[in-house]
Amino acid sequence: MMKLGAFLPAPGHHVAAWRHPHARPDGGLDFDYYRSLVRTAERGRFDMVFLSDGAGVRTTYRDAEELSRQGRMVHFEPLTLLSALAVHTTHIGLTATASTTYNEPFNIARKFASLDFLSSGRSGWNVVTSVTDAEAQNFNLDRQPDHATRYDRAREFMDVVTGLWDSWEDDAFEYDKESGRFFDPDKLHILHHQGKHFSVRGPLNVARPPQGYPVIVQAGSSPDGQDFAARWAEVVFTAQQTLDQARTFYRGIKKQAAEHGRNPDDVKVLPGTFIVVGRTRAEAEDKYAALQDLVDPVVGLGLLTGQLGDVDISGHPLDGPLPDLPPTEGSTSKQQLIYEQARREGLTIRQLYLSVAGGRGHRFLLGTPESIADELEEWFVGEGADGFNIMPDYLPDGLDAIVDLLVPELQRRGLFRTEYEGRTLRDNLGLPRPAFGAARHPAERRA
Amino acid sequence: MMKLGAFLPAPGHHVAAWRHPHARPDGGLDFDYYRSLVRTAERGRFDMVFLSDGAGVRTTYRDAEELSRQGRMVHFEPLTLLSALAVHTTHIGLTATASTTYNEPFNIARKFASLDFLSSGRSGWNVVTSVTDAEAQNFNLDRQPDHATRYDRAREFMDVVTGLWDSWEDDAFEYDKESGRFFDPDKLHILHHQGKHFSVRGPLNVARPPQGYPVIVQAGSSPDGQDFAARWAEVVFTAQQTLDQARTFYRGIKKQAAEHGRNPDDVKVLPGTFIVVGRTRAEAEDKYAALQDLVDPVVGLGLLTGQLGDVDISGHPLDGPLPDLPPTEGSTSKQQLIYEQARREGLTIRQLYLSVAGGRGHRFLLGTPESIADELEEWFVGEGADGFNIMPDYLPDGLDAIVDLLVPELQRRGLFRTEYEGRTLRDNLGLPRPAFGAARHPAERRA
Question: Which partner for B387 in A124, A129, B3, B278 could form a disulfide, CB atoms 3.0-4.6 Å apart?
Fold first, then answer.
């Protein structure tokens, strides 16, 4: 069965989504709006909602006037939002992004363990390293740490966090009122981590999470990112534009996971997929054209600059080619993806920003439920994907259309569930529950 | 009107609460349990629930066997729990403790702003500096920073957090779909904070909170703590044992607040009050005796050690006097309070730990609804308190008894509300909503 994530930034993925007549530009801070979206995704039997995050407002615009054209400025912090959504949903997984660069592992281990208890085992953590100077400048730095340092910290961060989740064995707490013994002292394990980036004693002041560990999600596609994913990720979110590329990536990740002593089936690869679906192809084309017409050139260029790792291209003519780019300390894999697309398709800067205005470098599918189901099926059966992280164009209509039109078509083909298999996110994704101490001994993860 | 907080650590304040036959020792990680408690407090028209917190498990016990006698080991992280409770309640305030010592101000500003939106203006932040080496050791340190350094950081932390909450004016967001302008660029204010402990550019990626700023709560009672409270706190939680002491503290805080250019009415002083209430005095005494009988000496001594700032007294006989104590880098005001009590009442170590087994140095009231209401009224009309942070003995029974017996008696006397005055925590506490930029200019806070 296909696995589906619902990637739901308010008010949608298209950069001009907020200007659509039906969009709610203030939705990012409205709980009722989010509750309605997530219940729609749960009605559609999605495995999980997925919230991206950044610890700052992107500030690559020249001034506040330019920035004010941008439509995604303020929104809930994902862990607080998902905690509230946890108690208004019953089956759907709840995956929040949190940065290893600007948090301490003890705080992150606690919060995700707490969310896993609030949701009775439906939490996921999208592990990221932060990739902008704008974020660094909110955390006592002038510029972000370099790529290698960020990943080095992230790897040690995972050792600490999983170690803290293993502070207590699953059945450590006895609550024996008679004898006065609250827990079995043999089942407490104090971490005593001493490393290069962190010294963390433990134990965690939360019990072992219902899922053992929350599901680990990861999206880095650079060599460092792929190695990290192969070692740690159970869901890999990736940007792939052709089936050949997707297959190469898919096989690479599974192979590297096996080299880390893991069962390749325990890593689910979900390429991001930007979708515009209509009852007819013409309806879908009209929807998309309406959104493209709303793209402000300032916003388009700002988006492209971000995609290129905050490389300044403002001096180049919009209707000329993309210049050669310097290396970035931002996301190297994303920069390369966009650059290759520009060269491959011979796009001007303007054509390039319009082409990423929806999916930001992710695969873009436009059409009818049948045509889009064909395209998803091709990648799924062709071993390019275990499923997809679905990116609606604008909300709530885009998600409604996917749930009401596309999901039934996938179900009809037997590609997607009609009922949830279980109650935890692991149950639904078909991932094993890690045994106590599993993170320290990857070989134990084998099926 | 009196202001009342419900201070609700699962499974209650008494150190042996978890061993009570009716107590739920696993309640700290059970959302339904907390939802039920907080709805009871809301039915009782409490101003707020108050959750204390520490970033670690206290490790002053000699070994895991001793530690296993202790009953408060694992619980929800407060911000995730209150986010979930926010969407299952309508009027009660939600105050979480978060440390300025082991967090970054950008993260804290975001999370509390997010909680304020989730709860439509019912969030409060209990600002603490962390006071144990056990926490320090979870954050890359061997020992905690000294008292003065912690407060120096905390003061700058507040400048940054309030500055970030003022990133956007209240009406900054226009969402003008036609013109494509999302916000008014004149209403964005980038902080550019450069200080001794922090460099934070801003802006925050959350709009200005519904309450302007979440309500600031503070509990430090050392000279540094009182000065901090006078400058920043809108609710002061304090431990006072006699009316004379309480009056001195109350007048001191109000006077210092005035010296900071604030209206003294905008600082509400709420002494912590441990309550055992029964229909008759004998019933209350029986309840208390039953709890005291359940106190394990190892736990009693561990509790006392913590109250004394982690000073080791294990070499001294339980039935002898408390020895002279060295200075602590923990909570100096709490150490002094306990020490003075021991001397004043001539208590042995065992008698001392039994005396703090319930209220941990806070005022202790045992009796009938009438007698307890008399005692609360005396402090309230006697200018020792603006209200009380109520500490039930064990849960849920202790809170039920307070809501069903004591609250009606206070309402009958016209001392406490029968309906909420408004929808935000500020409305109910009678606190003004801070204007944009208020924190930078305390004089603007005058009524």
Answer: B3
Averaged over A257-268, what is the pLDDT?
96
Interior CA angle at A444 toward A439 and A446, to 5°?
115
Superfamily of domain covering B3-140+209-282+363-435 = Luciferase-like domain (3.20.20.30)
Residue A331 among known ligand-binding residues:
no
**pLDDT above 90 coverage of chain B, percent:** 82
Strands B363-367 and B268-277: parallel
List, for residues B240-265, the tens digit of each pLDDT value: 999 999 999 999 999 999 999 999 99
Contact criterion met (CB below 8 Å) for A393 and A288: yes
CA distance A70 to chain B (A): 7
- Write out chain B residues lying below 8 Å of A166, CB-based: none
Which range in A416-425, B354-363, B434-443 is most confidently predicted, on average pLDDT? A416-425
With both helix axes pointing from N to C terminus, report the angle between B223-232 and B243-259 in degrees, rounded to the nearest 10.
50
Q: Please give the Cα distance from A162 to A109 (Å, whole number).
A: 8
**Residue B185 pLDDT exceeds 90:** yes
Q: What is the pLDDT of residues B202-240, one digit of tens each?
A: 999 999 999 999 999 999 788 999 999 999 999 999 999
Nearest to B64 among A56, A177, A185 (CB): A185
To the nearest whole Å, the CA of A27 is away from the closest chain B CA by 11
Nearest to B177 among A19, A77, A201 (CB): A19
The CATH architecture to which A3-292+361-445 belongs is Alpha-Beta Barrel (3.20)
B147 known ligand binder: yes
User: Letter for the amino acid at B303?
Assistant: L
Nearest Cα to Cα of residue B98 among A338, A95, A107: A107
Q: How is residue A323 written in tokens?
A: 């210049």
What's the pLDDT tens digit per position in A33-73? 999 999 999 999 999 999 999 999 976 677 899 999 988 88
- Which of B180, B186, B207 is nearest residue A19 as measured by Cβ atoms? B180
Kindly report, residue by residue over A249-258, the tens digit of the pLDDT: 999 999 999 9
Cβ distance B117 to A54 less than 8 Å, yes or no, reads: no
Mean pLDDT of chain A: 94
**Identity of residue A132:** T
Cβ–Cβ of A137/B199 closer than 8 Å? yes
Name, in order, each residue with C-beta under 8 angstroms of B332's C-beta and a sequence gap of 6 or more.
B147, B222, B309
Rounded to a whole number of angstroms, the distance from the CA of B290 to the nearest CA of chain A is 13
- How far apart (Å, rounded) are the C-alpha atoms in residues A418 and A407? 9
Give the chain A residue nearest B183 (alpha carbons). Answer: A68
Q: Alpha-carbon distance A185 to B72, whole Å? A: 14
Domain boundaries, chain A: 3-292+361-445, 296-356
Of all helices (H) and strands (E), which one includes residue A225? helix A223-232
Q: Residue B441 has what pLDDT?
A: 54
What pLDDT was estimated at residue A59? 65
